[in-house]
Amino acid sequence: MAGIAPLKSYIVPAVTKHTATVIFVHGLGDTGLGWKPVAEMLNDELPQVKWVLPNAPPMPVTANGERKLAGLTVLSGWLPLRHDFKSMISEHAKSLPIFWGHGSADPLVRHELAVKSVDFLRESIGINTSPTAEQLVGLSFTSYAGVQHSVNDRELSDLKTWLKKVLPSVD
């Protein structure tokens, strides 16, 4: 059986001792280079992080192969095939920190699809969608008023704050 060919990626290295790697999976057909400014901006306060920015093919892919995820970030996304997903997900998902940001004016992935996805994860999978500021486990969902299928400064700031909380520090 042939293996899956690795995606070509753009790498933003850690600028201090490397303690964490973030694989930034984005929209199909998009390039890692297009997200380089975001990784570099986040590296200012997360210097221990190596950023892997794959060039996405124009077809479905898996984000992590057979490796266990340590956390998940969703920007302007939704969970298609929810009922099929329920049979594929493991108990490990309930132990993940998840950041989910979505613009209220997104014309490509409607906001209501994100809300329904989060509701499904809470009601059908049992993922905590109300983690406290001290909790690392659970799904933190934030809507960004007026934002379309993109990110704004507030969402990037919220993402940076969340990453600083859940990733290992330099020490």
From TrEMBL:
For this UniProt record, the keywords arranged alphabetically read as follows: Fatty acid metabolism, Hydrolase, Lipid metabolism, Serine esterase
- Reactions listed under catalytic activity: S-hexadecanoyl-L-cysteinyl-[protein] + H2O = L-cysteinyl-[protein] + hexadecanoate + H(+)
Q: Which species does the entry assign this protein to?
A: Mycena chlorophos (Agaric fungus)
Q: What class of enzyme is it?
A: hydrolase
EC number per UniProt? 3.1.2.22
Q: Which family does it belong to?
A: Belongs to the AB hydrolase superfamily. AB hydrolase 2 family.
Please give the SUPFAM superfamilies that the UniProt record associates with this protein. alpha/beta-Hydrolases
Q: What is the lineage of its organism?
A: Eukaryota, Fungi, Dikarya, Basidiomycota, Agaricomycotina
> Is Cell wall biogenesis/degradation found in the keyword set?
no
Pfam families referenced in this protein's UniProt entry, alphabetically = Abhydrolase_2
Q: What does this protein do?
A: Hydrolyzes fatty acids from S-acylated cysteine residues in proteins with a strong preference for palmitoylated G-alpha proteins over other acyl substrates. Mediates the deacylation of G-alpha proteins such as GPA1 in vivo, but has weak or no activity toward palmitoylated Ras proteins. Has weak lysophospholipase activity in vitro; however such activity may not exist in vivo.
The protein in question is named: Acyl-protein thioesterase 1
